[in-house]
Write a structure and sequence with these properties.
Elements: H1 5-20, E1 24-27, E2 35-46, E3 57-62, E4 68-72, E5 77-81, E6 87-91, E7 104-109, E8 115-119, E9 124-128, E10 138-139, E11 149-158, E12 161-171, E13 175-185, E14 191-204, E15 207-210, H2 211-214, E16 222-224, E17 230-233, E18 240-244, E19 250-256, H3 265-278, E20 287-289, E21 297-302, E22 308-312, E23 323-330, E24 336-343, E25 352-355, E26 360-365, H4 367-374, E27 392-399
Parallel strand pairs: 1-19, 2-24, 15-20
Antiparallel strand pairs: 2-27, 3-4, 4-5, 5-6, 7-8, 8-9, 9-10, 11-12, 12-13, 13-14, 14-15, 16-17, 17-18, 18-19, 21-22, 22-23, 23-24, 25-26, 26-27
Length: about 400
Amino acid sequence: MKTPHLLILGLILLTTHALAATPVIHNTKPTHPPRVISLEEQWRVGGEDGDLLFGLVIQAASDAEGNVYLLDRQLCHVEVIAPDGEHLRTISGQGEGPGEVQVPIDLVILEDGSLGILELFPSKLVTMATDGTPRNSLTMKLDAEGSGIMISISCQQRAGVLLAAGHRAVQSQAGQERNMYLGRFDAEGQRQVEYCQHTASLSFDPPRFDEGDLLPAFFFASAVGPDGRVYAATSTDNYRIEVFQPDGAPDRVIERAFTNRPRDDRERSRITARVDSWYRDFPGEVERQYLDHELPINEIFVTDEGTVWVCHNRSHHDLPTGIMASYDTFDSQGNYLQEVHVAHDADPAYDGLVFLGDDRVLLIKGLVLSRLESLGNNAVEFGELEDEAAMEVICCRIRG
């Protein structure tokens, strides 16, 4: 008896689908026990007794020579620090001229060695030589039409992939339609590949805020690996990282058994303060829908060897004495390797770490509130500190 042609076709389609299915690596526990790394101070700038005065430092990067670039959101410029801690120069400044910025939101060292400062609005990458000499800027565009208002959130470049996140807002009868994206852009600022997208409706009449709908996870947690693969957190409830080939093809999904930690009073107060700042000019009450936890994944970075480091909503809580942060690490295939504990006496509720991509990390005093304030509308009144200390940046070598 001959097999019917339709049955053969069905078997072929099922087999093709199975081969094309994106592999999901679900992890339950790490392969190795936790590892502790320590931070050995190399230099520090800022602080109460320092010569440099910072406003709101929100991002940092390092170039091929080891110089460190500190983006100050409030003062709209970049401080450049030599590998030995010497202050070299201040570049950029507030304005609309060549090399100037109005609302900087991110910083990137581009692969041609130049510096890029990402503007929140209008959405563009202001580029310059590392000595501050202006170069051409890229206006970020989603399509040829360019309609709506473009807002940028983050930007990075590695292995030929210029990755940026943001949204385009188009006015509607009730408010705005927001097309949120994580995409790859070319040298003219045109989007070439869309890795993640989410569309949400922002209501103005009546005003309504839904955190899970309006703040997607990929806004805050994405990375480019040394081979150009893109890693993005894609869930507001689950520990889930989607990995894409540079051309946008799904590569794999990394998951981990995880229980979200409920928000504490301070975290609830902080998200409330940010939303208050966004709706400050709206009359009447704003209907609000908050998550009961912080995002499961709030930071991803990938080492030159391909090891994936993940900061999650338990990374700064319930830690052993003397540990300020804990990161999950995965190999390039998505297998859970181990927890890495960072030993230091800094306060993770206010102080943050920026890994520079070599064997150095910046401990930035006050980074947490600076970044939260940078995402608010003008000044965000957190009301936590009666006498807030001056921001300080400490460069450390990683030991262990």
